[in-house]
Amino acid sequence: MKIIGLWATVLVLLYALQTSFFTLISFDGFSANLMLLFTVSVAFLRGQEKGACLGFMAGLLQDVTTGSYFGVATFSYMTVGFIFGKFSVNLFRDQSLLPVISSLPALAIHFAVTISFLFLLGWQIDLMKFLKFNFWPAAIMQVVFAYPVHRLVLALNEFSKRR
Question: Which of 71, 104, 149, 152 could pair covalently with 37 via S-S, beta carbons 3.0-4.6 A apart?
């Protein structure tokens, strides 16, 4: 039970860091999505069930605190956690370059789910403008912070195994 509390505390601390400090070091108005990076790393290390569960918790935390369309981030993060957790059985779990590389497809899946929901709600979205002005600045920040977040998850995973 203490281990679950530790993972939840790290999740909340990463969200607090994402919403407070990382807005100060944003690039073109976009900062790193630490919750998405955390979900991808946990999914790679712990599998699809734990990845989807943590994605659900991360998305729920974001949905509750942001006040936008409720459930979009929850579904998006849960989907990312499930998809990348599926790949965890075929991979070396301590490989550190993989979460850096996979941060871009994870961001693409997150944006695709979000855009799909917005399209279903009647929003008009210019995909080329979205890719140019929204996706690539966010992708740069994701790649920069993917390795430190994965190292944190690796340390947490090793600590959890020892307990």
Answer: 149
